[in-house]
Amino acid sequence: MFINRKFPTSRLRRLRANSTLIDLVSESSISSNDLIQPLFIKENLKGTEAINSMPDILRYSKESVIDEVEDLLDHNINTIALFPAIDSSKKDSDGTEALNKSNLICESIQKIKSKFPEMLVIADVALDPYTDHGHDGLLKNNYVDNDLTLDVLKSQSLILAESGADILAPSDMMDGRIGIIREALENADYKNTILLSYAAKYNSKFYGPFRDAVSSASNLGTSSKSSYQMSPTNKDEAIHEVAIDINEGADIVMVKPGMPYLDIISLIKNTFKVPTFAYQVSGEYSMLKLAINKGWLHSDVMLESLVSFKRAGADAILTYAAKEISREINIK
Question: What 3-state DSSP class applies to 281?
Fold first, then answer.
């Protein structure tokens, strides 16, 4: 008996028949040029040391980080973001060490740029690695004072630019800091120094391992950064933050964290059409990496998570897995 079936005219599975076809019609892809490797540099360290809360991630000495930068270049990673873990004796309430032209991060930038001028170096602009209270700004009556902090961030930015940083990344979330820093850079003839603004940085619980890595967790204690970092409940506010930073002179904007805020990445990219970065933060990385190492998840979930950033509209991604993923995609 003949049954008259109506077959579908659109068979989407035709384009999934093999890996070559799948790659041919791929809408989103990742290359090594999309990946930025964050690096932790620790004072008074010889060699390297593990970070317990970040599987397979190390702290480097000023000397050993040079070898790591060379290895990153060999793995086609051309941009790094540096974060200092300074000696606790140098931390104070005003973050004074941030303004020392010979501090850990300034010396490291100079050495890296001297040996590998082709490596793009992003320098963090914030005070939390330098303060004994763990906040990103100066405290006044136990409250982070916005305008007092701006003066210090301006000075810190000029010192980092003088040291040779290609990109300054204010991560503090103080109001008006992009305009103040941009004006200072222009006046000091650092016109070509790029500003990568942590424009939509949320008061997230995913930052814990990072704070361990730079030794600020114990300083911050139970204190909250909710008075300056964005509430995780807000979307429209992200648009407001980004618009202000672009108008004040930001060249690139960033969303942090990444995967829990894919909607924000997409919204910002579609709204402003400017270079938009995302940060796969320490908590995101660690939970995936731990599950991979224990065999609970397939190793490909790391790459899958980064593809979701690209699909959402991110132009580049800061991820602790940058070298690992670059190796993987180039082998494939």
Answer: coil
* Cβ proximity of 275 and 301 under 8 Å: no
- What are the b/e assignments for 215-239, b being 16+ CB within 10 Å? bbbebbeeeebeebbbeeeeeeebb
Task: Respond yes or no: is residue 6 known to be catalytic.
Answer: no
H or E segment at 113? Answer: helix 104-115
Domain layout of the chain by residue ranges: 30-331
Classify burial at 25, counting beta carbons within 10 Å of its beta carbon; exposed 0-12, middle 13-18, buried 19 or more: exposed
Q: Quick check: is 201 catalytic?
A: yes
Q: Band of the pLDDT at 218, cuts 50, 70, 90? A: low
Q: Residue 94 in 3-state DSSP?
A: coil
Tens digit of pLDDT for each residue in 26-36? 998 999 999 99
Helix H, strand E, coil C: the string for 24-62 is HCCCCCCCHHHEEEEEEEECCCCCEEECCCCCCCEEECC
pLDDT tops 90 at residue 223:
no
Q: Say whether pLDDT at 3 is over 70.
A: no
Cis peptide bond N-terminal to 257, omega within 30 = yes
Tokens 């003839």 found at: 189
Confirm whether pTM is higher than 0.90: yes
Distances (CA, A) of 185 to 209, 229, 269: 32, 25, 26
Catalytic residue, chosen from 91, 201, 225, 269, is: 201
Q: Which residues contact 216 (CB under 8 A, 6 or more apart)?
A: 128, 129, 131, 134
Residue of 42, 256, 269, 289 marked catalytic: 256
Alpha-carbon span 166 to 142, nearest angstrom = 34
Query: Which CATH fold would you assign to the domain 30-331?
Result: TIM Barrel (3.20.20)
Task: Give the position of tokens 């086609």.
Answer: 76
